[in-house]
Design brief:
The chain is of the alpha/beta class and 268 residues long. Helix content is 47%, strand content 15%. It has one domain. It has a 6-stranded parallel beta sheet with strand order 1-2-3-4-6-8, covered by helices on one side. Strands 5-7 form a two-stranded parallel ribbon.
Amino acid sequence: MGEIVETSSKRQRVCEEEAVDRIRSLPDSVLIHILSCLPTKDAIRTVLVPRFRHLCNFLTTLTFNHSWYGTGEEGCKDFLDYVRRVLLDHQNGTIDKFALKVDVNFLYSKKVENANDDIDDGYIVDYEDLYLAGFEERKASEVDSWIHFAMRKNVKVLDLDFLVYGEPKPDASYRLPSVVFREKQLKTVKIYGGYITEPYVIDTVEFLLKNATVLEKLEISTKKTLKHSHQAYSSRQKVELTTEQRVEFSQQLLSLPRASPRAVIHIS
């Protein structure tokens, strides 16, 4: 009985080794395709295997999720360093998909601009907030550079999810680099989260639809869209669209002319 079990175990090991050998013998292009189907963090781990060591620099799909590194400043720094390192090492001339889910607190960006005014007006400046303001501003700049990277690689699918935390203000919005709306090769664009102002969305989406000649799908969330109001800005109060305003806003987006006859707009 013991010999049967031992023989069975040997056969299993032989089968596993043969399977591994078959995988290793696959062409680089096939292995890169397989690795690109994995979450980027898992694909990168294969660098420990000699056969895969350099293949991770040629991934055609790049996905990054802030939650991999948790919350807090240190987790954020680790996440930024990780993404920066992966993008610097990337060697493929093109990518098919770039997906990013990142925590943002862009309400701090205004504090940097207004800090000197606050000092002149006799207000006490919270230097911890000022530090966070600078940090969030640098993060916004990083995100910009990542998106520019994707555009340079002629990305076809751009999937962005901004997870807002903190108490948002009307100025807590993030404006995508204009290069996104000039690219003609985009087939799918998904934008979720973040606080965005109504006129900005209409203008930028209209520009995208006019330029993206091969666009097939545009998904955009209007749940956190703000009504542009000078009074709201001066009073520092958040003014979100009502249900009726969101319906009207969505209808405006759906009625925009499109360069691609196949373009479909999904609004949530």
